[in-house]
Amino acid sequence: MPTLTKLYSMEEASQHNTEHDCWVVIDGKVYDLTSYLDEHPGGDDVLLAAAGKDATDEFDDAGHSRSAKELMKNFCIGELDTSAPTIPELENSSKKETNNYSQNLMELTKQYWAVPVAIVGISVVVGLIFLRKK
Ligand code: HEM
């Protein structure tokens, strides 16, 4: 039977950044370390500094033992959803762009209305000159 892995966006993980709710992302996996803060041999301060963040580098730099890596499995609550945008504003602005396509077109028309008007104007002037010559 396939296992269902819960996916979390970085946006969601970043909201769990307190001593009462402490999530950390390591190697694309999300860990809830709230209950481990007081037990962590490296201290709770390092975990709190990494709360709501990707702490892969910090975790590796601490040179954790094999038993620490076994232990961390107990706190894994899911994986990072890599398809979710890291910067939500980017998604919003790109969505806005598609939604406002027709609005953008209107803006462009407003901005360049002078071009067709100039063409018509020049045609009228040339026409008048041509008629006068006849
Ligand atoms: C996933 C959860 C984690 C577990 C289960 C865990 C477990 C442990 C354990 C068992 C030790 C004792 C030494 C060892 O056996 O390697 C340790 C030390 C340490 N950990 Fe963690 N750790 C975790 C996450 C982190 C994170 C995210 C950081 C940094 C942001 C960190 C920083 C440290 C430091 C600085 C030490 C002390 C190393 C030393 O004394 O040389 N740990 N950790």
UniProtKB/TrEMBL annotation:
Keywords: Heme, Iron, Membrane, Metal-binding, Transmembrane, Transmembrane helix. Pfam families: Cyt-b5 (PF00173). Residues 5-81 form the Cytochrome b5 heme-binding domain. GO terms for molecular function: heme binding; metal ion binding. One of its GO terms (cellular component) is membrane. The keyword Membrane applies. InterPro entries: Cyt_B5-like_heme/steroid-bd (IPR001199), Cyt_B5-like_heme/steroid_sf (IPR036400), Cyt_B5_heme-BS (IPR018506), Cytochrome_b5 (IPR050668). PROSITE patterns: CYTOCHROME_B5_1, CYTOCHROME_B5_2. The chain crosses the membrane at residues 112-131. It is found in: Membrane. Belongs to the cytochrome b5 family. This is ARABIDOPSIS CYTOCHROME B5 ISOFORM A, cytochrome B5 isoform A. The lineage of its organism: Eukaryota, Viridiplantae, Streptophyta, Embryophyta, Tracheophyta.
